[in-house]
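pipeline: protein-struct stage 2 | run 1193 | Nucleoside diphosphate kinase
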Amino acid sequence: MERTLVILKPGAVIRGLAGEVISRFEKKGLQIAGLKMMRLDDAVLDEHYAHLKDKPFFPRIKASMMAAPVIVCCVEGLDAVSVVREMTGCTNCRKAPVGTIRGDFGMSMQENVVHTSDSPENAVTELARFFKEDEIFTYDNPLKPFRYSSDEMSNG
Ligand code: ADP
């Protein structure tokens, strides 16, 4: 099964949305494989948002990501990266469709509730950035045959 990174940004923690957002992934049928609270620092954000380092708003998004602790989650399931990304909605919450996390819980481009990995390759890199190997858990779930068909389980 594929794994992806979700970061509940400081805004989600402070606004008390963490449980509701995590609950969406659980109800969808994704499995939580790792979960922890941490404070992000300058160095990890320089790495994580390296693709934005030349943007004028770069210092502002780093400050926003350090304003309070975040909750990092490793979410697992068949095609988890694209499923979670669809559930996230586009960057600007005002444009994100209703029914997505950003569409339902935000009004801002910057303060957009969650980060989610945008490709399987980036998911692998980002999970390694935020989790140690022994912080990600592989475990059987007896509900799996009710979530997936047998062929989906063997392909996943
Ligand atoms: P996404 O998080 O949707 O994958 P990006 O990787 O492009 O988007 O951007 C990372 C984060 O930087 C966004 O989630 C958002 O918080 C912030 N951001 C991106 N573009 C802007 C912008 N034009 N103005 C303010 N903040 C932005």
